[in-house]
Amino acid sequence: MNHSWVEVDLGVLVENLRLLQARLGGQAALMPVLKANAYGHGALDVGRRAQEHGSNWFVTAHLQEALGLKPAVDGARILVMGVVPPSAVETLVAQDIIPIITSEEHAVALNAEAGAHGLKLPVHVKLDTGMGRLGFTWLEADAVLPRVCALPNLDIQGVCSHFAAVDPEDPERAAPQLERFRHFRALLERQLDRRLFAHIASSRAFLHVPDGLFDAVRIGILLYGYGAGAFQRELPVRPALQWKTRVIQVKSVPADFPVGYYSTWRSSQPTDIATIALGYDDGYLRALSNKGHVLIRGARRPVVGRVSMNWITVDCGPESGVRVGDEVVLIGRQGGEEVWADELAGQCGTIAYEILTCIHPHLERRYLG
Ligand SMILES: Cc1ncc(COP(=O)(O)O)c(C=O)c1O
Description:
Elements: E1 4-9, H1 10-24, E2 29-32, H2 35-39, H3 43-52, E3 57-60, H4 63-69, E4 77-80, H5 89-95, E5 97-101, H6 104-116, E6 121-128, E7 136-137, H7 141-149, E8 154-160, H8 175-192, E9 197-201, H9 203-208, E10 216-219, E11 241-253, E12 258-259, E13 265-266, E14 271-276, E15 293-296, E16 299-304, E17 312-317, E18 327-334, E19 337-339, H10 341-347, H11 352-358, E20 364-368
Parallel strand pairs: 1-20, 2-10, 3-4, 4-5, 5-6, 6-7, 6-8, 8-9, 9-10
Antiparallel strand pairs: 1-11, 11-14, 11-18, 12-13, 14-17, 15-16, 15-18, 16-17, 18-19
Helix pairs in contact: 1-3, 7-8, 10-11
The structure holds pyridoxal-5'-phosphate.
Protein backbone atom coordinates (compact mmCIF):
# COMPACT_ATOMS: atom_id res chain seq x y z
CA MET A 1 0.00 0.00 0.00
CA ASN A 2 1.30 3.45 -0.84
CA HIS A 3 1.33 5.71 2.16
CA SER A 4 0.77 8.69 -0.07
CA TRP A 5 0.83 9.36 -3.77
CA VAL A 6 0.94 12.22 -6.23
CA GLU A 7 -1.59 12.60 -9.05
CA VAL A 8 -0.48 14.65 -12.04
CA ASP A 9 -3.09 15.65 -14.57
CA LEU A 10 -1.14 15.85 -17.82
CA GLY A 11 -4.24 17.22 -19.55
CA VAL A 12 -4.06 20.28 -17.29
CA LEU A 13 -0.36 20.66 -18.06
CA VAL A 14 -1.09 20.59 -21.77
CA GLU A 15 -3.78 23.25 -21.32
CA ASN A 16 -1.29 25.41 -19.42
CA LEU A 17 1.26 24.88 -22.17
CA ARG A 18 -1.27 25.92 -24.80
CA LEU A 19 -2.22 29.05 -22.85
CA LEU A 20 1.43 30.01 -22.56
CA GLN A 21 2.15 29.29 -26.22
CA ALA A 22 -0.88 31.35 -27.23
CA ARG A 23 0.28 34.28 -25.12
CA LEU A 24 3.76 34.06 -26.63
CA GLY A 25 2.13 34.06 -30.05
CA GLY A 26 5.24 32.77 -31.78
CA GLN A 27 7.33 35.74 -30.59
CA ALA A 28 9.76 33.38 -28.89
CA ALA A 29 10.19 29.67 -28.24
CA LEU A 30 8.89 28.20 -24.99
CA MET A 31 11.43 26.05 -23.21
CA PRO A 32 9.75 24.03 -20.44
CA VAL A 33 11.94 23.91 -17.34
CA LEU A 34 12.04 20.30 -16.19
CA LYS A 35 14.64 20.61 -13.46
CA ALA A 36 13.92 19.16 -10.01
CA ASN A 37 11.92 16.36 -11.64
CA ALA A 38 9.71 18.97 -13.34
CA TYR A 39 9.05 20.68 -10.00
CA GLY A 40 7.96 17.35 -8.57
CA HIS A 41 5.60 16.49 -11.44
CA GLY A 42 7.88 13.91 -13.10
CA ALA A 43 10.28 15.14 -15.77
CA LEU A 44 9.88 12.21 -18.15
CA ASP A 45 6.11 12.30 -18.39
CA VAL A 46 5.92 16.08 -18.52
CA GLY A 47 8.70 16.23 -21.11
CA ARG A 48 7.15 13.54 -23.30
CA ARG A 49 3.75 15.21 -23.26
CA ALA A 50 5.18 18.69 -23.87
CA GLN A 51 7.16 17.37 -26.83
CA GLU A 52 3.97 15.89 -28.29
CA HIS A 53 2.53 19.41 -28.08
CA GLY A 54 5.32 21.21 -29.84
CA SER A 55 8.16 21.70 -27.33
CA ASN A 56 11.56 20.88 -28.78
CA TRP A 57 13.80 22.51 -26.16
CA PHE A 58 13.92 21.58 -22.49
CA VAL A 59 15.86 22.94 -19.54
CA THR A 60 17.42 21.06 -16.64
CA ALA A 61 19.73 22.13 -13.83
CA HIS A 62 22.10 19.17 -13.92
CA LEU A 63 23.66 16.89 -16.52
CA GLN A 64 22.30 13.82 -14.70
CA GLU A 65 18.76 15.15 -15.12
CA ALA A 66 19.35 15.78 -18.81
CA LEU A 67 20.72 12.27 -19.35
CA GLY A 68 17.72 10.74 -17.57
CA LEU A 69 15.32 12.87 -19.60
CA LYS A 70 16.90 12.39 -23.02
CA PRO A 71 15.36 9.01 -23.95
CA ALA A 72 11.87 10.38 -23.17
CA VAL A 73 12.29 13.41 -25.43
CA ASP A 74 14.55 12.05 -28.12
CA GLY A 75 14.88 14.55 -30.93
CA ALA A 76 14.51 17.53 -28.60
CA ARG A 77 17.43 19.56 -27.33
CA ILE A 78 18.16 19.85 -23.65
CA LEU A 79 19.92 22.84 -22.13
CA VAL A 80 21.71 22.26 -18.84
CA MET A 81 21.72 25.44 -16.77
CA GLY A 82 24.24 24.14 -14.22
CA VAL A 83 27.98 23.58 -14.63
CA VAL A 84 28.90 20.45 -16.58
CA PRO A 85 32.33 18.89 -16.10
CA PRO A 86 34.77 18.65 -19.04
CA SER A 87 34.68 14.85 -18.77
CA ALA A 88 31.11 15.00 -20.12
CA VAL A 89 32.02 16.54 -23.48
CA GLU A 90 31.69 13.38 -25.59
CA THR A 91 28.35 12.54 -23.99
CA LEU A 92 27.06 16.06 -24.53
CA VAL A 93 27.85 16.02 -28.22
CA ALA A 94 26.54 12.48 -28.72
CA GLN A 95 23.25 13.23 -26.98
CA ASP A 96 22.65 16.76 -28.26
CA ILE A 97 22.69 18.17 -24.73
CA ILE A 98 23.80 21.79 -24.64
CA PRO A 99 25.83 23.05 -21.71
CA ILE A 100 26.32 26.64 -20.66
CA ILE A 101 29.79 28.06 -20.17
CA THR A 102 30.06 29.97 -16.93
CA SER A 103 33.65 31.22 -16.60
CA GLU A 104 36.80 31.47 -18.66
CA GLU A 105 38.32 28.57 -16.75
CA HIS A 106 35.26 26.44 -17.47
CA ALA A 107 35.23 27.42 -21.14
CA VAL A 108 38.95 26.68 -21.53
CA ALA A 109 38.56 23.26 -19.90
CA LEU A 110 35.59 22.31 -22.11
CA ASN A 111 37.43 23.60 -25.17
CA ALA A 112 40.49 21.48 -24.35
CA GLU A 113 38.46 18.34 -23.81
CA ALA A 114 36.49 18.89 -27.02
CA GLY A 115 39.76 19.40 -28.92
CA ALA A 116 41.23 16.23 -27.46
CA HIS A 117 38.32 14.30 -28.98
CA GLY A 118 38.27 16.19 -32.26
CA LEU A 119 34.85 17.64 -31.39
CA LYS A 120 33.25 21.04 -31.59
CA LEU A 121 30.99 21.51 -28.59
CA PRO A 122 27.80 23.59 -28.97
CA VAL A 123 27.41 25.87 -25.93
CA HIS A 124 25.43 28.84 -24.67
CA VAL A 125 27.31 31.62 -22.86
CA LYS A 126 25.87 32.31 -19.42
CA LEU A 127 26.09 35.95 -18.40
CA ASP A 128 25.75 37.03 -14.81
CA THR A 129 23.98 40.32 -15.40
CA GLY A 130 23.11 40.82 -11.75
CA MET A 131 22.09 37.54 -10.16
CA GLY A 132 25.54 36.91 -8.68
CA ARG A 133 25.21 33.17 -9.14
CA LEU A 134 26.48 31.53 -12.33
CA GLY A 135 28.13 33.02 -15.37
CA PHE A 136 30.54 35.68 -16.59
CA THR A 137 29.92 38.83 -14.57
CA TRP A 138 29.11 42.02 -16.42
CA LEU A 139 32.22 43.49 -14.79
CA GLU A 140 34.58 41.05 -16.49
CA ALA A 141 32.68 40.26 -19.66
CA ASP A 142 34.12 43.01 -21.87
CA ALA A 143 37.64 41.73 -21.27
CA VAL A 144 36.99 38.00 -21.10
CA LEU A 145 34.39 37.28 -23.77
CA PRO A 146 36.64 38.08 -26.76
CA ARG A 147 39.09 35.43 -25.51
CA VAL A 148 36.28 32.93 -24.97
CA CYS A 149 34.98 33.58 -28.48
CA ALA A 150 38.41 32.67 -29.85
CA LEU A 151 38.36 29.15 -28.37
CA PRO A 152 38.29 26.99 -31.49
CA ASN A 153 36.47 23.92 -30.20
CA LEU A 154 33.46 25.68 -28.73
CA ASP A 155 30.55 26.39 -31.02
CA ILE A 156 28.86 29.33 -29.27
CA GLN A 157 25.24 29.12 -30.38
CA GLY A 158 23.41 30.96 -27.66
CA VAL A 159 23.62 33.50 -24.88
CA CYS A 160 21.58 33.54 -21.70
CA SER A 161 21.14 35.13 -18.31
CA HIS A 162 18.69 35.10 -15.41
CA PHE A 163 16.86 37.94 -13.65
CA ALA A 164 17.46 38.36 -9.94
CA ALA A 165 14.35 40.49 -9.43
CA VAL A 166 11.24 41.03 -11.47
CA ASP A 167 8.94 43.24 -9.46
CA PRO A 168 5.56 44.13 -10.98
CA GLU A 169 5.42 47.13 -8.60
CA ASP A 170 8.80 48.35 -9.79
CA PRO A 171 9.41 47.24 -13.41
CA GLU A 172 12.60 49.32 -13.51
CA ARG A 173 14.33 46.83 -11.20
CA ALA A 174 14.88 44.50 -14.14
CA ALA A 175 16.16 47.27 -16.42
CA PRO A 176 19.90 47.19 -15.57
CA GLN A 177 20.07 43.45 -16.18
CA LEU A 178 18.22 43.77 -19.45
CA GLU A 179 20.57 46.52 -20.54
CA ARG A 180 23.67 44.48 -19.70
CA PHE A 181 22.22 41.45 -21.46
CA ARG A 182 21.62 43.45 -24.63
CA HIS A 183 25.11 44.91 -24.47
CA PHE A 184 26.94 41.60 -24.10
CA ARG A 185 24.74 39.79 -26.57
CA ALA A 186 25.68 42.46 -29.12
CA LEU A 187 29.35 42.16 -28.18
CA LEU A 188 29.29 38.39 -28.62
CA GLU A 189 27.43 38.61 -31.91
CA ARG A 190 30.00 41.12 -33.22
CA GLN A 191 32.90 38.96 -32.10
CA LEU A 192 31.44 35.80 -33.60
CA ASP A 193 29.84 37.49 -36.58
CA ARG A 194 26.68 35.45 -36.14
CA ARG A 195 23.30 35.77 -34.54
CA LEU A 196 22.92 34.02 -31.21
CA PHE A 197 19.91 32.31 -29.64
CA ALA A 198 19.23 34.60 -26.68
CA HIS A 199 17.15 33.89 -23.57
CA ILE A 200 16.87 35.54 -20.19
CA ALA A 201 13.21 35.37 -19.13
CA SER A 202 11.62 32.85 -16.79
CA SER A 203 7.96 32.95 -15.72
CA ARG A 204 7.86 36.34 -14.00
CA ALA A 205 9.83 38.12 -16.69
CA PHE A 206 7.63 36.47 -19.33
CA LEU A 207 4.67 38.19 -17.64
CA HIS A 208 6.20 41.46 -16.55
CA VAL A 209 9.16 42.26 -18.83
CA PRO A 210 7.76 42.28 -22.37
CA ASP A 211 11.09 43.50 -23.78
CA GLY A 212 12.85 40.52 -22.26
CA LEU A 213 11.52 37.68 -24.39
CA PHE A 214 14.30 37.54 -27.04
CA ASP A 215 14.39 34.13 -28.80
CA ALA A 216 13.10 31.91 -26.01
CA VAL A 217 11.61 31.93 -22.53
CA ARG A 218 12.43 29.32 -19.90
CA ILE A 219 9.13 28.63 -18.20
CA GLY A 220 8.76 26.58 -15.04
CA ILE A 221 6.23 27.61 -12.43
CA LEU A 222 3.57 28.92 -14.83
CA LEU A 223 3.55 25.61 -16.66
CA TYR A 224 2.84 23.92 -13.36
CA GLY A 225 -0.10 26.25 -12.75
CA TYR A 226 1.25 28.77 -10.26
CA GLY A 227 2.60 32.30 -10.34
CA ALA A 228 0.22 34.04 -12.76
CA GLY A 229 -0.75 36.55 -10.03
CA ALA A 230 -2.54 39.55 -11.52
CA PHE A 231 -2.55 37.80 -14.93
CA GLN A 232 -4.62 34.87 -13.66
CA ARG A 233 -7.80 35.97 -15.48
CA GLU A 234 -6.14 36.40 -18.85
CA LEU A 235 -3.76 33.50 -18.31
CA PRO A 236 -5.82 30.99 -16.34
CA VAL A 237 -3.15 28.36 -15.72
CA ARG A 238 -4.16 25.69 -13.20
CA PRO A 239 -2.19 23.44 -10.85
CA ALA A 240 -1.76 19.98 -12.28
CA LEU A 241 -0.43 18.19 -9.21
CA GLN A 242 -2.44 16.79 -6.32
CA TRP A 243 -1.03 14.97 -3.32
CA LYS A 244 -3.17 12.42 -1.54
CA THR A 245 -3.16 9.82 1.19
CA ARG A 246 -5.59 8.01 3.48
CA VAL A 247 -6.53 8.17 7.16
CA ILE A 248 -4.82 5.38 9.13
CA GLN A 249 -6.35 5.96 12.57
CA VAL A 250 -9.17 8.02 14.08
CA LYS A 251 -9.55 8.60 17.81
CA SER A 252 -12.29 10.45 19.63
CA VAL A 253 -10.63 12.44 22.39
CA PRO A 254 -11.94 14.53 25.29
CA ALA A 255 -11.31 18.25 25.81
CA ASP A 256 -7.77 19.24 26.84
CA PHE A 257 -6.24 16.24 25.10
CA PRO A 258 -2.57 16.75 24.09
CA VAL A 259 -1.51 16.05 20.52
CA GLY A 260 1.97 15.60 19.13
CA TYR A 261 5.52 16.30 20.29
CA TYR A 262 5.65 18.69 23.24
CA SER A 263 1.84 18.94 23.23
CA THR A 264 1.88 22.14 21.20
CA TRP A 265 -1.85 21.63 20.61
CA ARG A 266 -4.58 20.57 23.06
CA SER A 267 -8.21 20.03 22.16
CA SER A 268 -10.58 22.76 23.34
CA GLN A 269 -13.57 20.40 23.14
CA PRO A 270 -14.20 16.67 22.59
CA THR A 271 -13.13 15.98 19.02
CA ASP A 272 -11.92 13.40 16.47
CA ILE A 273 -8.22 13.30 15.70
CA ALA A 274 -7.26 11.60 12.44
CA THR A 275 -3.72 10.33 11.95
CA ILE A 276 -2.18 10.26 8.49
CA ALA A 277 0.94 8.40 7.41
CA LEU A 278 3.00 11.24 6.04
CA GLY A 279 5.44 13.73 7.50
CA TYR A 280 8.48 15.82 6.78
CA ASP A 281 10.31 12.76 5.45
CA ASP A 282 7.81 12.81 2.59
CA GLY A 283 8.23 16.54 2.10
CA TYR A 284 5.27 17.78 4.13
CA LEU A 285 7.13 20.65 5.75
CA ARG A 286 7.44 20.73 9.52
CA ALA A 287 6.70 24.45 9.32
CA LEU A 288 3.09 23.42 8.63
CA SER A 289 2.74 22.26 12.25
CA ASN A 290 -0.46 23.80 13.68
CA LYS A 291 -0.88 25.77 10.42
CA GLY A 292 -1.67 23.60 7.41
CA HIS A 293 -5.04 22.25 6.36
CA VAL A 294 -5.97 19.01 4.63
CA LEU A 295 -9.23 17.95 3.03
CA ILE A 296 -11.18 14.95 4.29
CA ARG A 297 -14.78 14.17 3.35
CA GLY A 298 -14.91 17.41 1.42
CA ALA A 299 -14.07 19.65 4.40
CA ARG A 300 -10.95 21.60 5.41
CA ARG A 301 -9.40 20.18 8.56
CA PRO A 302 -6.52 21.79 10.45
CA VAL A 303 -3.22 20.03 10.99
CA VAL A 304 -2.79 20.03 14.75
CA GLY A 305 0.31 19.34 16.80
CA ARG A 306 3.76 19.15 15.28
CA VAL A 307 4.33 17.55 11.90
CA SER A 308 6.59 14.61 12.70
CA MET A 309 8.82 12.56 10.45
CA ASN A 310 6.23 10.07 9.25
CA TRP A 311 2.85 11.06 10.66
CA ILE A 312 0.63 14.07 11.02
CA THR A 313 -2.51 14.62 13.07
CA VAL A 314 -5.62 16.44 11.98
CA ASP A 315 -8.50 17.85 14.00
CA CYS A 316 -11.69 16.63 12.33
CA GLY A 317 -14.10 18.14 14.88
CA PRO A 318 -16.63 16.34 17.10
CA GLU A 319 -18.52 13.40 15.61
CA SER A 320 -16.84 14.04 12.29
CA GLY A 321 -17.76 10.75 10.69
CA VAL A 322 -14.15 10.48 9.46
CA ARG A 323 -13.08 6.84 9.16
CA VAL A 324 -9.90 4.86 8.63
CA GLY A 325 -9.31 4.60 4.87
CA ASP A 326 -10.89 7.96 4.01
CA GLU A 327 -9.01 9.79 1.28
CA VAL A 328 -7.03 12.82 2.44
CA VAL A 329 -6.00 15.61 0.09
CA LEU A 330 -2.85 17.45 1.12
CA ILE A 331 -2.60 19.46 -2.08
CA GLY A 332 -5.53 19.54 -4.45
CA ARG A 333 -9.30 19.57 -4.51
CA GLN A 334 -12.00 17.55 -2.77
CA GLY A 335 -15.68 18.37 -2.94
CA GLY A 336 -15.86 22.14 -3.16
CA GLU A 337 -12.69 22.71 -1.17
CA GLU A 338 -9.15 23.31 -2.37
CA VAL A 339 -5.69 23.48 -0.83
CA TRP A 340 -2.91 24.40 -3.25
CA ALA A 341 0.84 24.69 -2.89
CA ASP A 342 0.78 28.49 -2.75
CA GLU A 343 -1.53 28.39 0.29
CA LEU A 344 0.84 26.02 2.10
CA ALA A 345 3.77 28.16 1.03
CA GLY A 346 2.17 31.25 2.54
CA GLN A 347 1.59 29.39 5.80
CA CYS A 348 5.19 28.40 6.19
CA GLY A 349 6.92 31.47 4.79
CA THR A 350 8.14 29.94 1.57
CA ILE A 351 7.20 29.74 -2.11
CA ALA A 352 5.13 27.21 -4.05
CA TYR A 353 8.34 26.04 -5.77
CA GLU A 354 9.67 24.71 -2.47
CA ILE A 355 6.41 23.03 -1.48
CA LEU A 356 6.29 21.22 -4.85
CA THR A 357 9.94 20.24 -5.08
CA CYS A 358 10.03 18.99 -1.50
CA ILE A 359 7.43 16.30 -2.21
CA HIS A 360 9.61 13.22 -2.03
CA PRO A 361 10.65 12.05 -5.50
CA HIS A 362 10.15 8.42 -4.52
CA LEU A 363 6.44 8.81 -3.85
CA GLU A 364 4.35 7.20 -6.55
CA ARG A 365 3.26 9.52 -9.36
CA ARG A 366 -0.03 8.59 -11.01
CA TYR A 367 -0.68 10.21 -14.35
CA LEU A 368 -4.12 11.23 -15.54
CA GLY A 369 -5.35 13.09 -18.59
C1 LIG B 1 18.14 29.57 -14.67
C2 LIG B 1 16.67 29.38 -14.51
N1 LIG B 1 15.88 29.57 -15.59
C3 LIG B 1 14.54 29.42 -15.52
C4 LIG B 1 13.94 29.04 -14.34
C5 LIG B 1 12.44 28.88 -14.30
O1 LIG B 1 11.84 29.80 -13.42
P1 LIG B 1 10.28 29.85 -13.24
O2 LIG B 1 9.87 28.57 -12.61
O3 LIG B 1 10.08 31.01 -12.31
O4 LIG B 1 9.67 30.04 -14.58
C6 LIG B 1 14.71 28.86 -13.20
C7 LIG B 1 14.06 28.47 -11.95
O5 LIG B 1 14.52 28.39 -10.87
C8 LIG B 1 16.12 29.03 -13.30
O6 LIG B 1 16.92 28.85 -12.24
